[in-house]
């Protein structure tokens, strides 16, 4: 008698989750995909930048690897990086076969793009600044034609365990403003978390509002190993008017400059590469200059991108960066004629659920991919345009091994790093609040994280944040609605992030301690991340 197919539940519908689902289905799994919004609403959709990969004959995988290791500030895992750069081209070709129309020159060749900290212009874009949208659409279209079950508007409440093994998920499905959702349990032979990052921890973020660390929080509650949460990448340039909107680094890559209130190009004061210095260096330079200016934003001057007639420049910007151009003009700004106000914002989480090179976590039956996972690829900072590549490469790897893992009946799991800074299991500092504590709100949490656990950190600020979070976590609350569950997830992950930042007392990569080891800013120590 033929055994029933292996059932895998994938939670999340970005590039990593969709790739896992398609590969697992192709390998013979019965796949169910659950996503908290609609399929198309994931971080991938908002990725303006491109996907990095060795797609040109004069580029080398060793060069891409060296750039990635440099960006990771000495903390990236060479084995994971080798997998990324060696298997990346095949995954990009797979995306092309699925219909992703990467930008091409008149002769049909792929257009090369250069971003900071890359030694070669290996970045591919689609639609100028809409790479993520193009990839998301192609993968969703492929999913809809595959034999894959889909739960939309399905929020991950928790993982279901049988002893140490993860055997399913507990979902809240179909909630609306007028109606509570219903609880649904999905049993599974394997669960894959592809739930994205934690941008909603911060007052200023480039992420959509679905990025509430749900998968990482569920993994923490289940006892999975989590690491490197202190490594949060901040994008230097989001429009400072209206809802935060990312202005891709590609704009600076084509000549845009950063100026202060006096018109001074201050980025060169922080690093010899100026606006194309590592992203975290540029973000901190902006934050410091804003502080010097009393908090007012700095300006991004895009007029050098196309010198000359403003009308021709406007047409060029609209053609080259259509998504950004529309967002700029919606806010009543004319970047073809004058600089626009910009400010840093939380962008990407390098840490997450610890995995091996196939997405396996420390819990049998549980896999993690994409921004939710800590594969070791990014180390202390992410190289430009490596995130979409990571989702595709490690998503495919996880999808390909689920059936053999289930048949083998054994679990390998990741080798855990015994040398990582110790973090209390609870994430709660030992200190207690002095004086009254305000009632918890998400906005108060975001403001505290932005102020004390953001771009620039020190012991006293992290202590204040940790104490406040600890007090909030013991305030009585009983989550019932999706937003309330999200708040609990954010509080839990915030506690662990702050504890990790307190434990790592030196500055490295995106984790900058103003009271820590004062090493010089260098591409070998802190580096570009990015889309």
Total separate domains:
3
* CATH architecture name of the largest domain: 3-Layer(bba) Sandwich
The number of helices is 14
The structural class is alpha/beta
Q: Could you give the distance between the termini?
A: 50 Å
User: How large is the share of residues in beta strands?
Assistant: 15-25%
- CATH class category name of the largest domain: Alpha Beta
Tally of DSSP β-strands: 17
Order of strands across the biggest sheet? 5-2-1-9-16
Rg measurement, Å: 22 Å
Helix content: 25-40%
Largest sheet: 5 strands, parallel
What is the residue-averaged pLDDT?
Answer: 91
Flag low-confidence runs. 418-429, 518-531
CATH topology of the largest domain: FAD/NAD(P)-binding domain
CATH superfamily of the largest domain: FAD/NAD(P)-binding domain
**Shape estimate:** globular
What is this structure, in a nutshell?
By secondary structure, this protein is an alpha/beta fold.
Keywords, separated by commas or semicolons:
531 residues; alpha/beta; FAD/NAD(P)-binding domain; Flavocytochrome C3, Chain A, domain 1; Methane Monooxygenase Hydroxylase, Chain G, domain 1; 4-stranded antiparallel β-sheet; 17 strands
